Amino acid sequence: MDTTTTSPAVASAVEKSAIKKVAVRLVPFVALMFFINYLDRTAIGFAAPNGMNESLGLSAAQFGFASGVFFIGYILLEVPSNLALHRFGARKWLARIMVSWGIVALLFTWVGNFEQLVGLRFLLGVAEAGFFPGAILFLSLWVPAAHRGKILALFYLAQPLTTVIGAPFAGLLIQQHGLFGLDGWRVMFLGVAIPAIIVGIIAWFYLKDRPADAKWLTAEEKTWLTAALEGEKNKTEAVNQKGRIGDAFKSGRVWVLAFIYFGFIYGLYALGFFLPTIIAGFQAQFGVEFDVFQKGLITAIPYVPAAIALHFWARDANRRGLKTWHIVIPAFLGAVSIPLALFGGSPAVTIAIIAVTAMSIFSALPNFWTLPTQFLTGAAAAAGIALINTIGNLAGFSAPYITGALADATKVGDTPHYELPMLVVGGFMALSGVLMLLLARRKKVTEAALVEPALTK
Question: Which has fewest Cβ within 10 Å: 143, 225, 297, 447?
Answer without folding.
Answer: 447
